[in-house]
Amino acid sequence: MSSDYEFSDDDGDYYDDGDMMDTQEDEDDDEMMGSYDDFKITPKGKHKSYEVEYESLSQDAVEQLMSADVEHICGIFGVDRDAALLLLRSMSWNKERLIEKYMDNATSVLCAAGIQVPEPTPETSRPHSTTARRSTRSTNKFLGLSSASKPKSPTPPAATSPKSFVCPICFDDSPDLTTRALVCEHQFCTGCWATYICSKIRDEGEHAIRCMAEGCHIIAPDTFVRTVLSSEDGDPEENALALSRFHELVVRHFVASNASLKYCPYPGCTNTVSCPSASSKSSLILMVPTVSCGARGIGGQSVSASQVLEKGGGLGIQAKEHKFCFGCPIDGDHRPLICTVARMWIKKCRDDSETANWIKSNTKECTNCLSTIEKNGGCNHMTCKKCKHEFCWVCMGPWSEHGTQWYSCNRYDEKAGIDARDAQSRSRASLERYLHYYNRWANHEQSAKLSIDLYAKTEKKMEDMQVTSALTWIEVQFMKKAVEEVDKCRMTLKWTYAMAYYLAKGNEKDLFEDNQRDLEKAVEDLSELLESPIEPETIPQLRQKVTDKTVYVQNRNEIVLEDTANGFLEGRWKWNAVVEGFDEPERLEY
Amino acid sequence: MDARLRRVTREIADCKNDKTSSIKIETIDESPFHLKGSFPGPEGTPYQGGNFEIDIVIPESYPFQPVKMKFITKVYHPNVSSASGAICLDILKDAWSPVLTLKSTLISLQSLLCSPEPNDPQDAEVAKHYMTSKASFEETATYWTHIYAGGPGSKDAKQLNSGDDVAIAGLEHTHVDRFVELGFPKAKVVDALRRLNYRGNNIRNIPDDRVIEELLK
Ligand SMILES: [Zn+2]
Ligand SMILES: [Zn+2]
Ligand SMILES: [Zn+2]
Ligand SMILES: [Zn+2]
Ligand SMILES: [Zn+2]
Ligand SMILES: [Zn+2]
Predict the structure, then answer these.
(1) pLDDT digits 0-9 by tens, B65-86
(2) Which domains does chain B have, with CATH numbers?
C-alpha cells in the first residue's frame, strides 16, 4: 500500500485516512487502486519514482481472464471448453503459438495436449519399462478418431459396471464395481480414480493429471476431475479440498505463464498482482517493483480491517499487508536495491556461511524459484515441485546441461577448490569489508524480526495511555504508526547496506552513505523514544515528539528511496562487481 | 482392510506363487511396507552370476505415488549411485503408473542392468568410466559383482578382506603405483585417479601435472 508514505503533517487527517482506507479495503479489494488513489496527495496515475503501477486481482478476476482466452479458442477451433483448456495449458497459455501450431497440425497438437490418443506406432515402448497392462476391456474405438471431426473431450463418462472386471490397481473384482475411463478407454474403478486424482493434486500439486495406465498420455479434462471429485467415491471433505486446490493450481499455472502477472507468495493467499511495467528483465535494472496484493494477515487467516478495529487494533498491528517483489522471489520489500544485486548479496551471505556443509545438507533451494526442496530418495536428478525446474543436486546446474554434458557435474568439486583457494588468499581487509556491511545488514534484519515484540509492547502502552490520559483509541494511533514506520525504515536500511557493499567508490557512494546515515540516526532516535517509559503527565508532549519524529523519519526514508530510484533511472549507480545489465566495473573489489 | 495393505499383500502373494519367476520379494520385519526384493544379474552382462538386493519402501499413497527403491547390494552402473545405491529411473519418478507393481518395477531394474543410460546418469564418475572405456568399465562392474553380489569367485575375494581397492575403483595397478612412488598415500592416489577418470584413452588427456594438482588439493 503505497499510500503509507503519504503522511500528512496534520495527524488528525492522517488517521481518518487510515481508518477509511481499511474499511474501503474490506469492501472492495478489486478496486484497490481506484479507492486508494482518492487518498493520495499525488495526482491519480502518477507514482513516485520508487513506486510502480500495479493492480491486484482476486482468484475470480484471474479466472475471468482465463475464461476469455478459453472462449476465444473455443470459437476459433470449434472445440469444447475442456479441450480448449487443455490445449491452452499445454502451450503455457500462449494463444498465438497454439493457433499457429494447431493450424499447422491439429492432430499432433491434440495428442501432445493429452486430448487425443495418438496413432499407434511401433516404437512407443520406452526403455526399462514394462509394457502397459491394458485393461481387458479397452477397445480401439477411439484410436481412429479422425482429425477432421471436431475433437470433443468425452462427456464425463457415467460410471459403468462392466461384467467380470478386475480393477488393475486395487484388484477389486466385486460385481457391483463401477468404473470410469478417459478417451483412451483405460478402465479403472471409480474409487481408484478418486484416490489417484486426490494424490496427484495434494501430494504433487499437479494439474495435468495423466491417465493411470502406464505410458498413456491422455490428460483428465476439468469436467472429468470435477465429476470424480464430486462423486461418492473417497472422503467428501478431502475431495472438496482437492477440487478447490485443483482450481487454484490451474489459475497458478495461468498466472505463472503470464509475465505480467504474479501470484501472491503469502501462504494461503490466492490473490494475483498484475504489473506489466515490471514484466521484462530489462525493466528490473531500472526499478524495484514492490507490490502488494491487497490482503493482509498470515497463515491463510487473512483478517479484514473491520475485525482489526473490533479487536481494538491488536491484530491490526501484526496483520501486515502482503507486500512482495514482483521481480524476484526475495521475501518482502527490498527497496531501494534492485533485484539482481539483492540476489547477489543474498547468495554471497549464504555461500560464505554454508560452503562447508553445502553438499551434505538435505534441503536446498531451487535455483529457479528459490522454494525449498527436500531431497527424496537419493536420485540427483531433481525436479522442483513448484516450478518444475529440473536441476542436478550435486552441482545445482540445470539438468538440461547434463543430458549431453553430464560431466559438468564436477563443477561442485572445482567450485569447492576455487573457494578454498580464494579463502586462503582473501586478504583480511576484504573480509573485514564484507563483515562491516554484513553486520549492519544482519542487525537491521534482526531488529525487524524483533519488531513483533515491539508491537506487543507498544500495544500495551497504547492501552495504558487510554487509561491514564483522556486520549481515545484513535488518538493513540500515533504509537502504532511510529512502530510501523521504524519497521519499514529498518527494511530500507537493511538493503542500503547490501547496496553500499556493491557500490563503486566515489562521490555518488559518499552521497548515498550520507543519506543512509541520516536515516539510520533518525530511526534509532525514534526507536529509543518508543522504548522510553511513559509518564502520564507528559503524554501530550510525547505525542507531539513521536509524531514529529515519525514525520522526520518518513521524510528521510523518502529521500533515500527517491534518490536511489532516480539514480537507477538516470544510470547514476556504478558497481564494484559485475552486475548483469550494467557496464563492467572499472575496478573490482572483493 | 486398508486398500494399500490389500494390494501389497496380494502383490507379495502373487510373487511367491509364481514359481517360474526369479524375482523375489520378502518382508524384513513386521511391517508390510518395508520390503526386500532381489533378482539375479542378467545373463551376458557384467552382473551375471550376482544376486542383487533392493530396499523397498512403500509410501503412504502407494500405488498412486511411486514405490521407493534403492540397491542394497553395491553395484557399478551409470544409473546407480556407487555410494548410496540410489537409482535414476523414469518409472520411479514421473513415469510411474499405478498399474505398475513391485514385481514389474524389479523387472525394470533388472533390465536397467542390461541397458545403462549413461546420458541420464546417477553416478557421474561411473558414467564417465562407461563412456570413455567400456571394456575397463565392464571389468570393474564384473569385479564388483564378484565381491559384492556373490558372483563367481566371490568367496575367495571376501576371505581376502574387502577386495582390491584399485580394482574396485576401476583403475590399473601400474598407474596407481607410479604416483604412489612419488610419495603420495595410496588411498589418495586411487581417489584422485578415479575422480579424473584415469582410464583407457582418457589418460592421454590428463597430464601428470593435473594429477599432481589433484593430489595436492
Ligand atoms: Zn480400483
Ligand atoms: Zn489411458
Ligand atoms: Zn496476498
Ligand atoms: Zn526483487
Ligand atoms: Zn522451483
Ligand atoms: Zn551435476
Answers:
(1) 999 999 999 999 999 998 889 9
(2) 3-114 (3.10.110.10), 124-216 (no CATH)
